[in-house]
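User: Could you check the structure of this?
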Amino acid sequence: MEDIMKSMALIPLLLLCCAPLYAADGKPADELPPGAARETDAKYPPVISYTLKNGLKLLILEKKFVPTVSFSMTFKVGNVDCPSGKTGLAHVFEHMAFKGTKVMNTKDYPKEKALLDQIETAGKNLIAEESLGAKADPQKVKDLKQKLSDLEKAADAYSVNAEFVSTLEKLGANGLNAYTSVDETVYHMSMPADRLEAWMILESDRFKNPVLREFYKERSVIMEERRMGEANPGNVLFENLSATAFSAHPYMNPIVGWMDDLKKLSRTDAEEFYATYYVPNNATLAVVGDVKPAEVIRLAEKYFAGWQSKPLPSMSYTAEPEQKSEKRVNVFFNAKPSFYMGFHNPGDDHADAPALIMLSEVLSNGKTGRFYRNLVEGKQLALGAGTHHALPGNRYPSLFLVAGTPKAPHTNEELEAGIWEEIEAVKKAPPTPWELEKILNNYEVEMIRGLESNMDLAKGLASNDRIKGDWKYNWRLLEDLKKVKPEDVSAAAAKYLKRSNYTIITMTQPAPETAAAGKGADKK
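Assistant: Sure, the predicted structure tokens are below.
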């Protein structure tokens, strides 16, 4: 604790000074330590890789154009890793990671902690009583809610609202945010380059010493987020698609979590989740911008080395069994007719993945894609139609997604038939070399554009390293895409885009008497 306090005291000084030219051991700041490896192949950016003894992976790319630096900390933990009955826990912890530490967001942590412990006891008691359902004692529930509220108000007297975030913003942070997917959780921001050490102090403290204050208040915020999602037609479609297409694999669960699970989550659950997955050997930190790589490594050793590594649990989950027949669900909802189609794919590490990516682009590569040319402009069946080769994630086999919105007076059924015509056409007649060449050109252009943004680079490097096991994944994927032949695309369509591997969720307007009751989704 004393070391942390000393480090925090440095922050005002760091507002006025830049990084030193020499490290503490007297070596020039640009001299890389043993174990650091610089990429020398001209096909790739000159990224420097370094792994701390605790397993934290560093990826550093020096770019001198603007005196800023972007950071992306990626953890290989997402909703797919939530324990059974605790869906949404990964997303909940992401919210809690902004609530401060033992020295941030608090006026007197020992006094605050005593109240936080009482809050947790009250919260667990409330969860236990509410879990009884119809047998719960209404008066006891009311009393427990009041006790929880009173304790939270008492704890508020010792907390400093948003101090962690406001401190970073005073230091010049922008793009300060995070996101959770089914596969990963990512924390990112950009800072003035001379605030490097301040970032190291604050970010290392955040992940070494988090305090999950305001847990039950934040859980209520997330539950409201869940309710808002239930009023969003696109979210309703995708949630139903995942829950229908997957019968065994945890990709079936929504990132925000199921409401019944959220109601039962405790702060203890979140702390155990943190202790299991928020370890340095499960994280990659990418630093891109106007920095000296050796200085980044020195500071990372100084502030992150004390973060203790732990063995990770198995991340092997129940494999989804082969789908043998079409699945079809209709959802009544007060929204325009639309639908999502899903076909099980073999996963991004499968030899067929590049061909499926090219197939996705052949069908919906902007205005040159077949869906737009033939269904939107040609037959005018659709307001829009698109694809994605892998959703909701790519750590495990997922879904080749097709989305469609018919153009009135055409129906979901007419557009679905039109999409199947396009799928069958590409099975019978391979795409032209021109179609594939245009896709590759677009991919290369997007990669070049991605190199311009420090933030995009940092997020891409860290995510690919942690999830794909290789920060060079995007460049190597391009080489694999170049090897795809037109007949490979047709073969992939025939192998995976078939009725027996097909799930469709359609959305239609409810009957007038149902619609009068208000918005809502009901399955048919």
